[in-house]
Write a structure and sequence with these properties.
There is one protein chain. This protein has a two-stranded antiparallel sheet. It has 145 residues and is mainly alpha-helical. Strand 1 and strand 2 form a beta hairpin. It is elongated and about 55 Å long. The two termini are 22 Å apart. Helix content is 64%, strand content 11%.
């Protein structure tokens, strides 16, 4: 896809854009950078490495889509493309951080640390979707796309 430096730039820009509310990009960038600084202060780890690990742990590999066949709706597991997978992982990380109360940058820091250790809400969401896909794998023959 892209070399590692360009991919890192793309992912951070995309994450900041998803974090942004009401067009306040500077504020979103500040929240993101403060959370990376909190990670460095708490764990003595590189913030970007933790961010990429959290993103890798929270992105799903499959999703389920509803397909109507013969009057019944089936949940059909569909493998995800890399771009969609990363996008869902980012959205889940941001949603998990927003659910917590208090400082946005501190919440994002905590969420990223949890996800980098394979814990937290976004990793649970990924696991639950994978379980649903596993239970409905017998319906993959309904997939035509």
């Amino acid at each position: 896809m892209l070399d590692s430096k360009k991919k890192a730039q793309y992912l951070t820009r995309k994450f900041v854009n998803l974090l942004m509310v009401d067009g306040k990009k500077e504020k979103a960038e500040k929240i993101f950078l403060e959370s990376l600084n909190y990670i460095y202060k708490k764990e003595k780890k590189e913030g970007m490495a933790t961010f990429f690990q959290a993103l890798e742990n929270s992105k799903p590999l499959v999703e389920v889509r509803s397909v109507r066949r013969g009057g019944a709706n089936y949940q059909v597991p569909v493998p995800l493309q890399e771009k969609r997978s990363l996008s869902l992982g980012m959205k889940w990380l941001i949603d998990a951080a927003r659910k917590k109360g208090g400082s946005a940058s501190l919440n994002l820091c905590i969420t990223l640390l949890e996800a980098s250790k394979n814990q937290g809400d976004c990793v649970k969401k990924r696991e639950s979707i994978h379980m649903v896909a596993l239970k409905n794998r017998s319906f993959t023959h309904f997939r035509w796309f």
